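ok so heres the complex, two chains, lmk if somethin looks off
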Amino acid sequence: KNEVEQSPQNLTAQEGEFITINCSYSVGISALHWLQQHPGGGIVSLFMLSSGKKKHGRLIATINIQEKHSSLHITASHPRDSAVYICAVRTQGAQKLVFGQGTRLTINP
Amino acid sequence: NAGVTQTPKFQVLKTGQSMTLQCAQDMNHEYMSWYRQDPGMGLRLIHYSVGAGITDQGEVPNGYNVSRSTTEDFPLRLLSAAPSQTSVYFCASRVTSGSFYEQYFGPGTRLTVT
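and the predicted structre for the whole thing:
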């Protein structure tokens, strides 16, 4: 079993829908990252968080440390949100990141 | 700042050939790393470095060498390419200190080994 599991693996929705992508992990962490990878391949960091909730524009990330779970929400989704969303955790005491497999999101107009 | 740069963007090699993937960053980050990304799998760490002169193996180091002679550069060498090394390679960098940091990724190198 992977240390970081994302669900769903693929998600297709209509423009305007509320999107939720989930990330569960099985190890103690010091921080969790949400990354976005566009079809061109580049990876950008969206959020890094260790507790609570963060919001940036239409994107919201939450984390529940006790339940070892994080969610990424997109409100009023748009076709330009179509990308692969990747969850990654930094394990406690380690320098390295452990990555989930990614969730491929497609927003249709 | 240019951020993290990688060259080349695309490369096709024949089995047994060698090559070096270049990675550079201009943010004075101590920590640099190389990942490979394969379909259906998460990014996997190949090698990493916590500073000039210091490198260590990641999850999938076999078939790859690295060196870190300067803070800015972290090249990845394939000594004898194999089809199993067909992948997209990403270089990344970040500061070392603290538990809360942002990871910066290069644009990736798509490598095909035939």
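quick notes: Chain B has no helices and eleven strands. thats all i got rn
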